[in-house]
Design brief:
Layout: H1 3-15, E1 23-24, E2 27-29, H2 41-55, H3 59-74, H4 100-113, H5 120-134, E3 143-144, H6 154-160, H7 168-176, H8 182-188, E4 196-198, H9 203-207, H10 221-230, E5 239-241, H11 255-261, H12 268-273, H13 280-287, H14 292-304, H15 324-332
Helix pairs in contact: 1-2, 2-4, 2-5, 3-5, 8-14, 11-13
Site (Transition state stabilizer): 65
Main location: secreted
InterPro entries: Haem_peroxidase (IPR002016), Haem_peroxidase_sf (IPR010255), Peroxidase_pln (IPR000823), Peroxidases_heam-ligand_BS (IPR019793), Secretory_peroxidase (IPR033905)
Length: 333
């Protein structure tokens, strides 16, 4: 492991030792402390994630998205990691999801030291926390104790995951169905201050909004011109930064909300948050806040508690890509 990677991993492990116990239901901070001897599970994962940071910083946004897409379907149970012809990975909203190989690496690393103890669902949550930290979004104390689910369905993912053209009332209802508030929703969408969007998701908005032959009038003209230069009509596979602040496209900060107030939201749902009478005050507050990192971290903790399996529910997978029965069958030949 590179020296810089080891240092970041150590820092992440050290930070979570501060403060007293905190729990959300059956989840708790430091769940694995003492369960793997003297090994620090979270520092091991931090080393894997930070190694990716030094080679490809854009993958950090992918880990945050991976956590969201996992939790929003069957709950935070690692079901998005399962392979299969009809698994969540194959669902349309998940076609551009990345980060699976990082979770595989983290799983391999912890299994060598502590086999059969650390769940894949927890690895996603820990990796997302580390990605937030490495993206400049501050540190929060991740809760662990999840177990892995046994079911992964593309059909469920297709109807559950909210798309970029969803309306604000629909988005509020979708988050409420997961026990999350409108404020949680606006905070979590702040993750759009990092990462990219494929041009296919905004082509209609910048070229032919609602069949008008014109761009969405709610978007700033300079932003329209910028996005059109990157996303000509037929270039649907190109990507653009979700954060149109040229100085911080890889930094998780409150510039997402500032962009919305300037009518520079890239996705339609982003800009509509700034026009809706219920969410605009939240956007304005966060655009001018100094405590966004702490509030975002708290929202991530609440997201990470959605629909979790604990205790004897589910299993602890040997491989994040298959359920244990499949692993045993493969080994028996």
């Amino acid at each position: 492991m590179k020296k810089g990677t080891a240092v970041v991993g150590f820092i992440l492990g050290l930070l979570l030792l501060s403060g007293g116990p905190m729990s959300h239901g059956a989840l708790q901070v430091g769940f694995y402390r003492g369960k793997c001897g003297f090994a620090d599970v979270e520092a091991i994962v931090g080393g894997v994630v930070s190694a990716q940071f030094f080679t490809d910083p854009s993958l950090l946004a992918s880990l945050i998205r991976l956590h969201f897409h996992d939790c929003f379907v069957n709950g935070c149970d690692g079901s998005i990691l399962l392979d299969g012809p009809d698994s969540e990975k194959t669902a349309s909203p998940n076609q551009s999801v990345r980060g699976y190989e990082i979770i595989d690496q983290a799983k391999d690393a912890v299994e060598k030291i502590c086999p059969g103890v650390v769940s894949c669902a927890d690895l996603i949550a820990i990796a997302a926390r580390d990605a937030v930290f490495l993206s400049g979004g501050g540190i929060y104390r991740v809760q662990t104790g999840r177990r892995d689910g046994l079911v992964s369905s593309a059909d469920i993912a297709n109807v559950t995951l909210p798309g970029p053209s969803i309306t604000v009332p629909q988005a509020i209802a979708a988050f409420a169905d997961k026990g999350l508030t409108a404020v949680d929703m606006v905070l979590l969408l702040g993750a759009h201050s990092v990462g990219v969007a494929h041009c296919s998701f905004l082509s209609e908005r910048i070229h032919n909004f609602k069949g008008s032959g014109k761009p969405d009038p709610s978007m700033d003209q300079f932003t329209v011109n910028t996005l059109r230069s990157r996303c000509p009509i037929n270039a649907i596979e190109n990507t653009v930064n979700l954060d149109q602040n040229p100085f911080s496209p890889l930094v998780l900060d409150n510039s997402y909300y500032q962009n919305i107030l300037l009518r520079r939201g890239v996705l339609q749902i982003d800009q509509e948050l700034g026009m809706n009478r219920f969410t605009r005050p939240i956007i304005a507050n966060l655009a001018n806040s100094v405590d966004f990192p702490a509030r975002f971290g708290a929202a991530m903790v609440r997201l990470g508690a959605v629909g979790v399996l604990t205790g004897t529910q589910g299993e602890i997978r040997s491989s994040c890509r298959v359920v244990n029965k499949a692993v045993k069958k493969d080994k028996s030949g």
